[in-house]
Amino acid sequence: MIINQPGTYPAREIPVVGDKSVSATSALVSGFVAVDLMKAVKPMKLLATLRRANYEIDIDTQRCRRDHHQLFIELAKTLEARRAVAGTLWESEEWDYFQVVVTGTDRLQHYLFSAVEDEGHPRHAQTIQYYQTVEELLKETWERYHASVDVSREGEGFFLLSDHGFCLIEQEVYVNAWLREQGYLKFTKDPPEGLHDISPEATAFALDPARIYLHRAGKYPRGGLSEAETPALAAEIREKLLALCYHDKKVIELVKTRDEAYAGPEAVNGPDLVAVAHHGFDLKGSPVATEIFGKSDLTGMHTWDDAFFWSLENAGADLDITRLADIVTRPILK
């Protein structure tokens, strides 16, 4: 049973291990970036439960990033619906794994991280109240788990995780604007409408958040770089990125090559370079931005080093912090 999992749209049947039937144990409600609730649910019998709870996939992100009064209305509404659905499905469905994802904290921190950190902010109390509501969901889930699950059975566990942290934005950094300034990215018209206007003369381009691809011949329709040219170009771009400054502050903390960042059969399709910024510099992949540095209505950005994984069991001496699944543990539930 998986509720609100990003990146799973359209919902599909989950393979079931063992002799339990798919209809009894396989259930998925897709999260961000799902657009149609009917296509975000498997099996369809769960749709009625979601509708009775007034379940919404997400808040209206475009409106709420500007209208903070509406933001808190929708944060409360979506969390309460997820809470109701989780309680109902916990009791009504047969399951061997139960997961609930909360995305409202991400939305709140992107739009109002200034209110999170500043106790004098006019909406600080509202942000704390929302976190307390999330904690109530956590407490309910913990008590429900503790009351109904035989924790002595092998394989049982209660887990909490976050895939990233957050900090205040000092400047947004538009990587494609930097590539244009350095002469690596060119377009067939100015201003471009998007990356589909890329020129055959371009040697590199970026996708969000800071995935840089070299414009190879044979891989991209207008690419002209040969494989022999790519190692030197990648090294040059990496060196220049690490030297990039905003006033007297270094912008980029590290740049990983594809081989350093990825492994597995699909690694060949990954970006040639992945840049990670110092806290406060939010890397963006907009192809139409003309300035390297700027600010928008967002106040919070992701950080890669404040993700966490927590479980009832001690992580053990074999913790590997180089693996996403083994990231730093923190005792946050007592």
How would you sum up this structure in a few lines?
The protein folds into two domains: 2-166 and 302-326, no CATH class; 171-294, Gyrase A, domain 2 (2-Layer Sandwich). The chain has nine helices and 17 strands. The protein has helices spanning 22-25, 47-52, 61-64, 68-92, 104-117, 124-148, 175-181, 230-243, 258-261; strands spanning 2-5, 28-30, 41-42, 99-100, 159-162, 165-168, 171-174, 204-207, 211-214, 245-246, 249-250, 252-257, 273-277, 281-284, 293-294, 300-303, 308-311.
Structure explained in plain terms:
The protein has 334 residues and is α+β, with helices and mostly antiparallel strands. The protein folds into 2 domains: 190 residues, no CATH class; 124 residues, Gyrase A, domain 2 (2-Layer Sandwich), CATH 3.30.1360. It has 9 helices and 17 strands. The radius of gyration is 23 Å and the shape is globular.
